[in-house]
Design a protein that fits this description.
Subcellular location: Cell membrane
Strand content: under 5%
Order of helices and strands: HHHHHHHHHHHHHHHHHH
Structural class: mainly alpha
GO biological process, one term: monoatomic ion transport
Largest sheet: none
Keywords: Cell membrane, Ion transport, Membrane, Transmembrane, Transmembrane helix, Transport
Membrane topology: Multi-pass membrane protein
Radius of gyration: 22 Å
InterPro entries: MFS_trans_sf, MOT2/MFSD5
Oligomer: single chain
């Protein structure tokens, strides 16, 4: 019996083998990291850096863990309450719009009055979002989506901005050490995602507490995030005298006029829009071979960890800088969707488990690209975005991404109503993802040229007029 025949009969074998290979790769990368990265850095790292990094990683990991607990069961909970796809789509769209609109203004408040207050509010607002999940009332669920959208915008802007300000402006630590922190954050985030998935599965399926249980479990971690922020996050921030509305206006003007920020924001918008689409398509794309979803999700997180380790090793040894690593991540993403698009023309016209398994393998490569992308993007934003409007502009540049996501959700909903097959929809999404990721690769090349020219000319992001 050949390998292809074994995979055809028992697809789970391939998923298990893939996980074994990913574990081996991670082990090898750990050895490389220990021998060539840790030894290189251990004499250079100061106690201030270790203490600051520890504080950031603890609060960030608690915040992310609470978010990961909820992720797998949001859609399931709405279905459990009896809402149809159209009503659920509206709930998701409200959350995305909330992320764009309210997140921008809460970011302006953080830039004016400090980031610590937003880190505290994150746990409180997201706890409120979780509490609304206890009720079937549609209006309460809409309110929950509003709170969730604001909370998500805080999660991916305020904590990073607090850390960058302390690292660069107060402790005056080398910018290159930011790479170490953000790579660790990505790696730990992936580990926590695996554990959160196992815990939520245990609560819902083993203990049979129902799909609302992960949201209840998230509340203690959210409250712990707020308490830890109050007690342990020391903030040395120079408050802005300008009003929050002026801060938003200045951020928008800077975003549209600064070529470094604008091109980087285009990369972020389309790349992260594709990440959101990928969440929607990977399950139906693999459904014909009845995949073990838990194993697949874990393999994706392992691939993410591999990507973060690659970034850590490359950046710490000055093999490649963050701009080049961003180019590599966008190229790997576009190549992955190119293969999926080509293979899916066969898969959905002449069903073959083997071709779907090929798509799965390139999903793994895409997840590796995400592991490289996340620390690259966070580090580069710390370089090009001025401190005074860091949180505001971090949320402003998400607006195109959220628009992309909203349009994609509406388009998927309309496709379903027109009775298109899952194969047609998945094939089209593959092509959309291919076009978007190819565009991000081209934009990352353009950004790389702009960024290198800017720093060659001696212009720093902190000197930009805001």
């Amino acid at each position: 019996m050949g390998i292809a025949e074994i995979f055809d009969r028992q697809p789970a074998i391939m998923f298990v083998l893939t996980m074994v290979i990913l574990f081996i790769v991670i082990a090898i990368l750990f050895i490389i990291s220990k021998n060539y990265v840790v030894e290189k850095q251990k004499h250079d790292i100061s106690p201030d850096f270790q203490k600051l990094q520890r504080s950031y990683l603890i609060v960030y990991c608690m915040a992310c863990f609470a978010d990961w607990l909820q992720g797998p069961y949001v859609y399931s909970l709405y279905k459990h309450y009896g809402y149809n796809e159209g009503e659920i789509a509206v709930l998701f769209i409200v959350g995305t719009i909330s992320n764009s609109l309210f997140g921008t203004f809460t970011g302006a408040l953080a830039d004016n009055y400090g980031r610590k207050i937003l880190c505290i509010l994150y746990g409180l607002l997201y706890s409120g979002c979780c509490i609304t999940k206890l009720y079937e009332n549609y209006r309460l669920l809409l309110l929950g989506r509003l709170l969730g959208g604001i909370s998500t915008s805080i999660l991916y802007s305020a904590f990073d901005s607090w850390y960058i300000n302390e690292h660069v402006n107060y402790y005056k630590l080398p910018n290159e050490w930011l790479n170490n922190t953000f790579a660790k954050a990505t790696f730990l985030n992936a580990m926590l995602a695996i554990f959160a998935g196992i815990l939520s599965y245990f609560l819902v399926n083993i203990l049979e507490f129902g799909p609302v249980s992960p949201f209840i479990m998230a509340i203690p971690f959210l409250m712990a995030t707020s308490i830890y922020s109050i007690m342990s996050l020391n903030e040395h921030y120079i408050y802005n005298a300008i009003s929050p509305s002026s801060s938003v206006k200045n951020a928008i003007v800077l975003w549209l006029t600064n070529k470094n920020i604008f091109t980087l924001s285009i990369v972020q918008s389309f790349y992260e829009g594709v990440m959101y689409l990928f969440i929607f398509i990977w399950t139906p794309a693999l459904e014909p071979i009845k995949p073990p979803l838990g194993l697949i999700f874990s393999s994706f997180m392992l691939a993410l960890m591999i990507g973060s380790k690659i970034y850590s090793i490359m950046s710490a040894n000055n093999v490649l800088d963050s701009t080049k690593l961003l180019e590599i991540s966008t190229f790997l993403a576009s190549f992955s969707f190119l293969i999926c698009s080509v293979v899916s023309t066969v898969t959905f016209t002449n069903y073959s488990p083997y071709t779907i398994q090929i798509c799965y393998l390139f999903f793994i490569f895409y997840e590796i690209s995400i592991g490289i992308y996340l620390p690259s993007m966070t580090y580069l934003k710390s370089h090009v975005i001025p401190e005074k409007v860091r949180v505001t502009i971090s949320n402003v540049i998400k607006i195109p991404s959220n628009m992309f996501i909203c349009l994609a959700l509406l388009w998927i909903h309309l496709k379903e109503k027109s009775h298109k097959t899952d194969g047609d929809i998945i094939f089209t999404i593959y092509n959309v993802c291919l076009i978007a990721t190819t565009f991000t690769f081209m934009c990352s090349k353009i950004f790389s040229k702009f960024h290198h020219k800017t720093y060659k000319d001696g212009i720093k992001h902190s000197d930009v007029e805001v």
